[in-house]
Amino acid sequence: MKRMIIASLFLITACKEEKKEIQPQAPQESVSQKTETGISENKHDESGEAKKWLEKSIENYFKADLGNLDEEMQKITTKEYYDYKTDAMNVDMDVDGSLTLKEFQNKWKNKFDVRKAGINSGFLISGQDWEEIKVSKCEQVSESIPFSKSDPVMFIFDVILSDKKLKSEYPVEIEVIKQNDSFLIANVSQE
Description:
- By secondary structure, the chain is an alpha+beta fold.
- It has helices at residues 2-21, 46-63, 69-76, 79-89, 101-108; strands spanning 32-34, 40-42, 134-144, 153-163, 168-179, 182-189.
- The longest helix has 20 residues, at 2-21.
- The chain is globular and about 45 Å long.
């Protein structure tokens, strides 16, 4: 019996020592490493590029001629989000292709959070009029790394758009994807 106990102690000690030797090594330089905030830091600082692109695109959108806003929106959004937001802006309106609220919800509920579509609100802001829209806050809150090469990298930003002349602020959450070396807005969550 004593021999069994002694043999067991040797076996336990040997396993513990073996475990210490197989400790994971710190990863070598990789494409994506986690930072203290839990957001990955890409080699090429894609999140920084996405933020700059988003801020510039938003401000350029609001500087565009009113007659070109639809075209400008199409340039900076995915086709799917453009179609979704166009439907949301026209819910229960007397225009061709307008949907009822129920039709809108049924059409998009599996792809977007329809409660945050900004029904009957404009793109990015709920106000009808503006003087000079500026991005007063744009902070990255998360990033998703694609499972496959065909999936886009997605960045989510907490954004506040301000119009100081009209004393208005518009908080939104914006999803930006990187696909084919360019950025596009894939969703805007508005109340």
